[in-house]
Amino acid sequence: MTLKLTTLALSALMAAGPAMADLVFPDLSYRTGPYAAGGIPFSDGYNDYFTLVNERDGGIGGVKARVIECETGYNTEKGVECYESTKGEGALVYQPLSTGITYQLIPKVTADGIALHTMGYGRTSAANGKVFSNVFNYPANYWDGASGVINHLLEENGGDLNGKKVALVYHNSAYGKEPIRTLEELGKKHGFELSLLPVDHPGQEQKSQWLQIRRQQPDYVVMWGWGVMNQVAIQEAANIRFPMENFIGVWWSGSDHDVIPAGAKADGYKAVTFHNVGDDFPVFDDIQTHVVDKGLAAGAGDQIGKVAYNRGMYAAMLAVEAAKTAQEIHGTAEIDAAMMIDGMEGLELTAEKMTALGMQNFGPAFNVSCENHGGPGLVGVTQWDADTQTWSLISGFNPTDSDVIGALVAEDSASYAAENNIEERCN
Amino acid sequence: MFYREAGDFKASYVEDSQTFPIKFDRYRYYAVLALAFGVIPFLVNDYWVNAILLPFLIYAIAAIGLNILVGYCGQVSLGTGGFMAVGAYACYKLMTAFPEISMFIHVLLAGGITGLVCVLFGLPSLRIKGFYLAVATLAAQFFLVWLFNRVPWFYNYSASGQINAPEREVFGIIITGPHAPAWATYMFCLIFLTFCAIVARNLTRGTQGRSWMAIRDMDIAAEIIGVNPMKAKMTAFAVSGFFVGISGALFFSVYLGAVEVGEAFGINKSFLVLFMVIIGGLGSIFGSFAGAAFLVLLPVVLKVVGVDMLGWPTDIVAHFQLVIVGALIVTFLILEPHGLAQLWRVTKEKLRLWPFPH
Fold first, then answer.
1. Assigned domain for B307 exists
2. What pTM did the predictor assign?
3. A413, B212, B315, B346: which has the fewest Cβ within 10 Å?
4. What do the Gene Ontology cellular component annotations say (chain B) (predicted)?
5. Which residues 282-311 on chain B approach chain A with CB closer than 8 angstroms?
6. Residue-wise over B176-202: b if at least 16 C-beta within 10 A, else e?
């Protein structure tokens, strides 16, 4: 047994040896625990896209991408362990898919000079690249999501939300609390009344919150949930016969696994999104040929085309494009973490590029710059159709209220800069 | 052969009543101290410190604290997570209010504040016992987490409700924040652990510890022979709270750096520390160390073997971890109800007679 282990260790070392020249993309995933329902498809998408790039294009600029998966269970302590164990491998960018772990990693990556990409989650004010040198959250952040929801409600009500009641059901954590400030500001601006209903981790118990909703009779319910909390909330909403078309989730509350358990009653539930849904894109044919048919699909391979899978794939695509940009800027195929940050800041995602990748209209075209790490913040709305079991985009990708969000971002990042004695960059 | 008293003569009471009366044991203890203080700081890197050593040191402090309450005084507590949160938030408020004061003082004060809070929640123990007390401390757990979530003053009105440890120094060396060198954070926690372990060890083998143990073994009998139950129970809660508070403060400021109360100090934390105490051995300082090491190291070892060596999928390994840790806990409780500390005691007995057992 000892001999076997030693041989295994040796072979693992040998395998790891020459692989050091790869481009390393750690995947801090969670396939276990109460948030696994969202973690599995995201991680599958993330892995599959890198496999696709390796198989179809022979890597990024000729260098293979290597994904190191590390299970966090959505737990910050395990997240730290994963970060420390993978950063020495030459990690280029971290995408922890957890706001709690993101808060943990922001100071660490800044000290270690590694990029952190928190797409649609994390600390919203990281959009201000002047303060957050290593953290990116393009193409959209929580406050864009909040504003996108309100914009959609405005549109439905002919631009007037005066006197309307909006309830926010949120995960009682840093993640769920993020949109409160924005919604409060927007409430003042548009005259709607906001009520807050926190749901504690993990979110399986929501009877009292929905009883309160039944009593308050809000016009709209907005949800900031994740993991098992989403399914429970949608089921509870169905139980109290809350009209589903007036129930809108953020993008983390709008995946297939969230609505399917409630069956036909979930029909009409809405969620905002910053990327397209469905599997009607040429890139999925490539994934079928180069990944699935070769038996290389990550996980069980049953998540392809699901909303969270698409998001993981989109995240991987943005990372690959940033790496390509970095290779162009520095004229070398073997980039390091510092070059990766340059690549992310120099990222220009055009419609032509997206089309060439087989992802036409999959997400908005945008540029990242030194000052703006947050992207354009364009938000669309999707709706669930329980009969066909599909999400469909019911609006275009529209701009959000940049006046309100911009001021909040400036305020929050300024307080972070003051706390940590950070001087503004990009001047 | 080892651990023998033969030839080890004591000429004074001080020598006779020292912590490690057997020479071999004493030298082993000095060797461990020398290794921990003199060798390990020069060898460690970020991974070893942040993934293995810091959690071990900090959980060991928490386990010592809980062991005093549960193992020595017999008062079952499920509020450890909540009390660690008190330590963390007290430390955060002190760090941000008095940035120029040394972290040593902040951590000690955080421990003191937690001790007071712990006494407050320990008051019901004067009336209720056993499972009922466990439920009362469970209420403390949920109340404290709710409090730190609900009252913005505790997290300095930050938008996310998180607390973040700013950079603080001790004698010019950065201890908290991302720029803190690995060896410094390790040494800082090690000093606290050594201090706590020595204090706990000496408290438990003196008058105080004996009155705790008397209460634990039979409170009515203890009362009859003159042990004041109120004093014994309240001191146990205070001392336990002090240690748990220190561990909470270190957990937040040195180890994690950013904490969300519900996630970091939830009921799971209370159970984790309780498991450490039970697996390590109730009523043993060494057991607290062993239990903490066991529950911190085992998942890491399983992960390294499963994922890095055998190349299994991460989710399978994570599930196996739960199965294996759970099975080991059950096995331990059946085969060795007195925990790892008892195994250590048996080993010492065996080594003492080796190689000529009668």
1. no
2. 0.91
3. B346
4. plasma membrane
5. 300, 303, 305, 307-311
6. bbbebebbbbbbbbbebbeebbeebbe
